[in-house]
Amino acid sequence: MDGKSSAGNAPVDVEQFKTGMRSLAGAVNIITTAHASHRYGMTATAVCSATADPPTVLVCINRLAATHDAVKKGRVFCVNVLRAEDWELSTSFSGAQSGEGRFRTRNWTKLSTGSPVLVDSLVSFDCRVVKTITHGTHTVFLGEVDQVLIGKKGKPLLYSEGQYAKLASLTLGEPLPEGLDYWGF
Could you tell me the CATH number of the domain that includes residue 111? Predict the structure, then answer.
């Protein structure tokens, strides 16, 4: 099999796909950019390393998001990797607040691209867009990293099954402690 569906196979049900993807745990990030004297930002889990040489990250952004058009026009973005205790900030950038209000809390700065950088994130990757790929409802932006800011130490904020979670340090074979797997938000 080559992985392609044959003419007799029904297409994958979108809701079934979404349900399946909810079980894929992802690090929670805030993608930020600045364009035309405005700051934009959104919470995202669709982020990963693309290549180490040159250092490049990949972000997927829904074309309906305001941050999408700002990244597309400005050709810069920053990936701010959140710490476990940053779940409220993630919620703000997920829609609980809009516009500039999202940036009123916490300590923000700028690096070379001018995108907002969260000073106390785990790490921030300040990037310039080098390639875009439009597919379905999203655009994949490949960003070559201009600068890296190592922030506060901590554990990453994760998201799975519609809930925030935190990473537990386990010894090989040790079961996850009761009640530690998910926060009840």
Answer: 2.30.110.10
